[in-house]
Write a structure and sequence with these properties.
Subunit structure: Homohexamer; trimer of dimers.
Helix content: 10-25%
Oligomer: single chain
Low-confidence stretches: none
Shape: globular
Order of helices and strands: EHHEEEHEEEEHHEEEHEEEHEEEEHHEH
Keywords: Acyltransferase, Transferase
Structural class: alpha+beta
Family: Belongs to the acetyltransferase Eis family.
Number of strands: 19
Strand order of the largest sheet: 1-2-3-4-5-14-6
Mean pLDDT: 97
Number of domains: 3
GO molecular function: aminoglycoside N-acetyltransferase activity
Number of helices: 10
InterPro entries: Acetyltransf_17, Acetyltransferase_Eis, Acyl_CoA_acyltransferase, Eis_dom, GNAT_dom, NAcTrfase_Eis, SCP2_sterol-bd_dom_sf
CATH superfamily of the largest domain: Gcn5-related N-acetyltransferase (GNAT)
Distance between the termini: 31 Å
CATH class of the largest domain: Alpha Beta
Bound molecules: acetyl coenzyme *A
Length: 413
């Protein structure tokens, strides 16, 4: 029998080797990588599966805050580093590790669990649903229609180049404001800021220093930050054809978002901009006079959510309109299923167990996709993924649950 348990310090090297094997990376683990792992691994929340003493599967979780619709942070069990060695696949090891972790999360009182899925078909069976999506664009700069004489924001705001140390000081507070206004966003710890500004480079991944630029409003308030790197590419006719790759763009106002995209697309020599993973309804393509200059290069599900406590999750978010809806939530794993009446208004919401007749029956997985405001119950009903017990209930759910801007998680974990 393969033993699944939390790690002891002596297991970390073997666990890291198994992790690298599962992710098809170099399985030889150097001292530097080991020290890096040890610096943040919470062994109480790091699981390994051991067969004859050798680690053959990995799983880790950590505490996270996820922004609900309306800006409140909810406690999440963030899951990462999930692997099962190819020698031990399809014997139920992931299922056993997931059950152990979700049991512990439920016991702790976490409202949801979250993850970024490597492959779409893996996590639905554990009650996770895709809750945010992401889009990458490639911008053909000469086609944007931007005025080549542009020299900074017209509104009187300003853009300044800063360095990594400045970003470590300014960035965390800016991000706190961003996540309070962006449902689907998650918190970033100090390690995130160090890792993303070169102060804590990931072993085996050579760091290249990017450019950092901030946007300040006319009154001097910091409202945005863009991080980008550029290549060095000239054609045979001695014309610059450089590509800027955006590593991140955090904006807390539309003015900052517009100005920073305009800035990146106006840098001399840059003829192409790769945007990185953006919100699917980013202002991006439409900030240009010719939005067709931006071509979608990928569009996919991003953050997956597993609701562990329906009452707390539904009461944590806000609702644009008012109304009442009885949901029959099916949760085969038994964490949070049942029938609930959701009563919502602009001042707040209550979600209480009820014996009233259900209007909509759905798996906890579909509720997760609806919870962050992105999915449409009408569409899910058309797909046979939710059942209307009362005609019109799906449309009523959409009126209650959907949001005018889409959820977005800017980070990967
Ligand atoms: C949050 C993250 O870390 S995402 C990263 C996930 N890791 C990877 O993708 C690395 C490569 N893949 C792996 O390591 C493994 O294949 C894992 C972890 C995805 C699955 O591990 P396994 O131990 O094989 O899963 P397990 O045997 O518990 O499977 C449970 C069920 O999921 C299904 N399943 C597992 N992986 C997949 C997959 N990639 N695609 C489709 N179905 C899958 C199994 O067939 C099984 O179905 P069943 O319940 O109908 O029998």
């Amino acid at each position: 029998m393969v033993d699944i348990r939390t790690l002891e310090d002596a297991d970390v090297a073997d666990w890291t080797r198994a992790l690298s094997t599962g992710f098809l990376r170099n399985p030889v683990v150097g001292e530097e990588e080991l020290a890096y792992r040890r610096s943040f691994l919470d062994l109480n929340r790091t699981l390994g599966a051991f067969d004859k003493g050798r680690c053959v599967a990995t799983f880790r979780s950590f505490p996270q805050e996820l922004t609900a619709v309306g800006g409140a942070p909810v406690r999440a069990d963030a899951i990462s580093n999930v692997t099962v060695s190819p020698t031990h696949r399809r014997r139920g090891l992931l299922g056993r590790m997931m059950a152990a972790d979700l049991d512990a999360a439920k016991e702790r009182g976490d409202t949801v669990a979250t993850l970024i899925a490597a492959e779409y078909p893996i996590y639905g069976r554990y009650g996770f649903g895709p809750a945010t999506w992401t889009t990458q664009w490639e911008i053909d700069v000469p086609r944007t229609g931007l005025d080549p004489r542009w020299s900074g924001p017209e509104c009187g705001g300003r853009i300044d180049l800063v360095d990594g140390a400045d970003v470590r000081k300014l960035g965390p507070e800016l991000h706190e404001r961003l996540r309070a206004r962006q449902h689907g966003a998650i918190d970033r710890d100090e390690r995130w800021w160090k890792a993303n500004t070169g102060a804590l480079p990931y072993p085996n991944h050579p760091w290249t220093e990017p450019h950092y630029a901030t946007y300040r409003a006319p009154d001097g308030e910091l409202q945005g930050l863009v991080v980008y790197a550029a290549d060095d590419n000239w054609n045979d006719n001695k014309q610059p054809q450089n590509t800027a790759t955006v590593r991140g763009l955090d904006a807390v106002t539309p003015a900052a978002e517009r100005a920073l995209w305009q800035y990146v697309a106006s840098i001399d020599w840059i003829t192409k901009v790769r945007t990185g993973y953006r919100a699917p309804d980013d202002l991006l393509p439409d900030v240009f006079p010719d939005p067709r200059a931006a071509r979608v290069t990928s569009h996919a599900d991003w953050l997956w959510v597993r609701i562990l406590d329906v009452v707390r999750a539904m009461e944590a978010r806000t609702y644009q309109g008012g109304g009442s809806l009885v949901l029959d939530v099916v949760d085969p794993a038994g964490y949070t299923g049942g029938r609930f009446r959701l009563e919502a208004g602009p001042e707040g919401a209550s979600c209480t167990p009820t014996k009233d007749g259900a209007e909509l029956t759905l798996d906890v997985r579909e509720l997760a996709s609806l919870w962050l405001g992105d999915a449409s119950a009408v569409r899910l009903a058309a797909l046979g993924m939710v059942t209307e017990e009362r005609a019109g209930a799906a449309a009523a759910a959409d009126a209650l649950l959907r949001t005018s801007r889409r959820p977005w998680c800017p980070d990967i974990f």
